[in-house]
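Figure 6 in text form: structure in, sequence out.
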């Protein structure tokens, strides 16, 4: 079959394959040829890193345009989440098209004006771009798109999983729908992605609101067949009060020593959960290199670094001439082609199984085992709150699910008002003025914002009008208002995403620091900062200020930083199974094994296998063993009943709550005929999650938050169990 399919590939592309020493197509490449050549369906190619996905898409796509040379204009539109990946793919495609008369042009902010002008004058071949640059084209050169893309055959979306369930993903869905609307035809979409636990479940993200069929081509996640893994535990050690919040705890010195000892001399990626940890750990490793009189091989990589520093490290990784270890955030999760990566490391617990999978896919490329090391500091505090050692159990649960090839499904569809605002203004700017009905039909009725009803859309347009983003002309159509024109006049408008805004924490009239706020906040909530507990007594979304007072209750409040709060139900259910079965995996070091053993012992001594409530010296703790949506909803329901509840890791802490008060609250919750989600979140002060949310009314923001972040049915199921214990 492979030889027969190979014969369908253009002869000049077969010359390229011969030059590379390829004797035949890989399975995913073989299976992709016919559906891509036929262009009757969309195609999703889901396989692990370095499995040949790019060639699977472009060998048949380039064949199709090479056989129709009489058709002019842009023939393939390639969209990537990263400029660095575009530059990498440009080099690969130029090599692939060496024997073809096909032009390949990268188009993003770092590409020279002369190269762009040449394509504007003579549009042809393949264009490689980002959603941000595509937005600029749709606003400023809409007629050029309409003319130059009349013969567009394919849209290729790289790292598709990175777009799904994100504001940038909704932006891209809208852009592709707008382009098809402009040129008046459906274009075959080809998505390239890392493996999914259920690839068929992602079809609706490739072309929402449509019945176009889609062929899903998958390949076994072979890199996990050769996986070596170890969790290295470290005892948490308390810092002096004057150092807390300023430096990494002492155990990170041990972690730095182990990273230096284990990774020096090879190429590795070490992922951290925060920029602070990334910078601090890289500094410790550089200092170690100086002390030992050896060249430094350890360098930080995160979004706040300058472009020059990031690209210098990326070049060093790609060249592979010198041993290099990048200490990085998620910035190196995606697919720039790095040379032979010896191992992947994770400092502190993973955020999701899917991100762990994506990170692991960067290693094990050259016929050797993929190596994963997790450096995990954890220890019991004086309050005994962490005796369950939940970070260790969470990490074991995620690794077990990874080995079983389970990954979190994409986030469900959202209202995405921020990106809908961007797309509304973009469409209006493209044409000068547009009717409200045309906007609704394009973006909501047939586009990706299909959760939005006509009633909600009219309320949304009213918000834009009140903020002078849009105005209504005499003929009834909508045009940009003064504020709308200002918003579009800056380059940052083209991006749907935004970095989290820094909030200043103030105590007694003085600033004690700033934090990027990544969790919902209410007056009375507690959090950990600079090694001390604080309680919120004032909050200003507009001024980005959090007023606090010291929090002296003998407990460890929740940190402001960390994951965005989307630990999945399946992960918490697996944690419960680990506690119940009491099996210690062999891939834990001595300290991690002891932490897990102590956590299991605590779990069984308190009979948490039979009960979801535990009364300890610091108060009542609740154990739903459900995901963050359910836990968030439980906390909000209890707060509405005047119970002071705080989510802490995988469970819920109740402050100064008598059992009788909890019993009354639970009965009230279960006796209520209807739970109003909007009422639950009325006291949450910071609902500006996405870039343009400050223009959206509080009513619409509450609607969006309640839809995306709450699970009332899951919470009620827990309260039903809890009532039986009370």
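Output sequence:
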């Amino acid at each position: 079959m492979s030889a027969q399919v190979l014969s369908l590939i253009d002869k000049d592309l077969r010359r390229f394959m011969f030059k590379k020493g390829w004797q035949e197509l890989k399975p995913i490449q073989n299976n992709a040829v016919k559906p891509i050549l036929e262009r009757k369906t969309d195609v999703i190619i889901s396989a692990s890193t370095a499995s040949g996905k790019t060639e699977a898409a472009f060998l048949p796509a380039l064949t199709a345009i090479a056989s129709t040379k009489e058709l002019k204009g842009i023939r393939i539109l390639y969209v990537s989440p990263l400029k660095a990946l575009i530059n990498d793919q440009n080099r690969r495609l130029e090599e692939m098209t060496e024997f073809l008369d096909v032009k390949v042009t990268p188009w993003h902010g770092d590409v020279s004006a002369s190269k762009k002008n040449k394509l504007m004058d003579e549009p042809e071949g393949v264009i490689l771009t980002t959603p941000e640059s595509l937005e600029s084209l749709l606003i400023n050169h809409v007629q050029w798109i309409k003319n130059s893309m009349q013969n567009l055959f394919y849209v290729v979306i790289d790292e598709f999983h990175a777009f799904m369930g994100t504001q940038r993903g909704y932006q891209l869905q809208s852009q592709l729908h707008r382009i098809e609307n402009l040129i008046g035809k459906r274009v075959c979409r080809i998505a390239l992605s890392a493996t999914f636990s259920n690839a068929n479940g992602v079809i609706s993200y490739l072309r929402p609101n449509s019945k176009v069929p889609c062929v899903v081509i998958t390949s076994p996640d072979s890199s996990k067949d050769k996986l070596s893994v170890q969790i290295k535990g470290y005892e948490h050690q308390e810092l002096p009060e004057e150092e807390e919040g300023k430096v990494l705890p002492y155990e990170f010195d041990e972690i730095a020593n182990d990273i230096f000892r284990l990774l020096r001399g090879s190429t590795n990626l070490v992922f951290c959960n925060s920029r602070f940890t990334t910078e601090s750990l890289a500094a410790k490793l550089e200092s170690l290199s100086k002390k030992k009189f050896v060249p430094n091989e350890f360098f930080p990589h995160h979004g706040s670094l300058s472009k020059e520093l990031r690209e210098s490290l990326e070049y060093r990784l790609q060249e592979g001439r010198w041993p290099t270890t990048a200490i990085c955030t998620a910035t190196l999760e995606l697919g720039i082609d790095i040379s032979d990566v010896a191992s992947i490391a994770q400092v502190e617990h993973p955020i999701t199984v899917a991100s762990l999978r994506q990170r692991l896919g960067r290693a094990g490329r050259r016929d050797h085992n993929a190596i994963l090391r997790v450096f995990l500091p954890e220890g019991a505090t004086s309050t005994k709150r962490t005796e369950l050692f939940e970070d260790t159990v969470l990490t074991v649960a995620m690794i077990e699910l990874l080995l079983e090839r389970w990954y979190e499904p994409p986030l469900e569809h959202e209202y995405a008002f921020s990106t809908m605002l961007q797309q509304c203004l973009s469409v209006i700017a493209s044409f000068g003025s547009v009717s409200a009905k045309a906007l609704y039909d394009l973006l909501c009725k047939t586009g990706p914002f299909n959760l939005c009803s006509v009633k909600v859309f009219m309320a949304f347009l009213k918000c834009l009008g009140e903020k002078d983003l849009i105005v209504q002309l005499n003929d009834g159509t909508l045009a940009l208002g003064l504020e709308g024109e200002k918003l579009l006049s800056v380059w940052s408008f083209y991006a749907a995403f935004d970095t989290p805004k820094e909030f200043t924490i103030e105590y007694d009239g003085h600033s004690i620091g700033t934090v990027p706020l990544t969790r919902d906040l209410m007056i009375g909530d507690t959090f950990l900062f600079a090694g001390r507990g604080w309680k919120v007594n004032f909050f200003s979304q507009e001024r980005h200020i959090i007023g606090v007072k010291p929090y002296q209750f003998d407990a460890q409040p929740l940190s402001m930083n960390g994951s965005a709060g989307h630990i999945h139900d399946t992960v918490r259910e697996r944690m419960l199974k680990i506690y119940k079965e009491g099996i210690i995996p062999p891939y834990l070091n001595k300290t991690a094994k002891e932490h897990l053993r102590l956590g299991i012992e605590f779990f069984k001594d308190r009979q948490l296998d039979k009960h979801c409530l535990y009364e300890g010296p610091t108060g009542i703790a609740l154990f739903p063993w459900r995901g963050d949506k359910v836990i968030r909803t439980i906390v909000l329901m209890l707060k509405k009943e005047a119970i002071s509840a705080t989510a802490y890791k995988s469970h819920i802490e109740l402050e100064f709550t008598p059992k009788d008060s909890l019993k009354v609250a639970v009965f009230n919750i279960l006796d209520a005929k209807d739970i109003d989600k909007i009422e639950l979140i009325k006291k949450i002060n910071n609902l500006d999650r996405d870039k343009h949310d400050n223009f959206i009314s509080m009513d619409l923001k509450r609607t969006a938050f309640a839809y995306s972040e709450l699970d009332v049915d899951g919470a009620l199921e827990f309260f039903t169990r809890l009532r039986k214990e009370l």
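Caption detail: The radius of gyration is 27 Å.
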